[in-house]
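User: I'm putting together notes for a lab meeting next week and I want to include a structural view of one of the chains we've been expressing. I don't have a solved structure, so I'd like a prediction I can at least talk through. The sequence is below, exactly as it appears in our construct file.
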Amino acid sequence: MLIPSIDLMDGKIVQLVQGKKKALEFDNFEEWIQRFSKFPLVQLIDLDAAIGTGTNHALLQQFLDRLPCQVGGGIRSIETARQTLGMGARRVILGSTLIRQGKVDIEFAGEISKALGSDRLVFAIDSKGGKVAIRGWRELTSITPLEMITSLDSYCDAFLYTHIETEGMMQGIPMEAVRPLRAATSKQLIVAGGISTNEEVETLHAMGVDAVVGMAVYTGKLDLEEYESRDPTPTRKVNGLEVFDIPRSSRPITSKRVKQLDSEFE
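Assistant: Thanks for the context. Below is the predicted structure for the 266-residue chain, given as structure tokens.
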């Protein structure tokens, strides 16, 4: 399954390189809502909430009213998670709050799973140099992604692994980092970090792994045109959601209103 990603910052959709350098920003929300409307799941992240500089609450609601989304960014309490689900999120994504004093907080994981149900929870594992990063990727822990999965496997519906070094680079995600994580859990495993071709999505699919894609979709490197023009037929189900595989095509996505802020991505 391919899961389009919508990252919000300062009231706009943005794409960052390695979580730091802004490469794209635009505000043609309706165009992308329509583009993503055929997908069974979209990932929606409030980057301002994640780093503690504000929220995009109204914009989140605008997307949640129109698209089936799993939502993350700044969700650090049971109450905030419950409110986000109340806004219409299919699932909530938690990351930093699962680590306390440098250790995996199994107690909190159990509490939120009991309060909301494990089927509403996605646990994020953001990795840099083989270690888990938290607080908007600004703080590095000594915990490995594999430790996170083995410790938290009983409390969530899915794991979301992001390979920070390749995030936004459109150079591919290293499969050697993904394989041991897939082997460690029977839960849905979603990965992100530089995925840029349909072939890569298909390779991950064959491994039983779903792909979050942002930069390659917005720049047109990964094509969705043929998918958008066909009458989709579900090929399988993941956690009750109908999943549609993405066919190959060479026709690019275009968007007149995309601001290309970094010539590296032109």
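A couple of points you could mention at the meeting. The chain has ten helices and 17 strands. The longest strand covers residues 2-9.

User: Perfect, that's what I needed.
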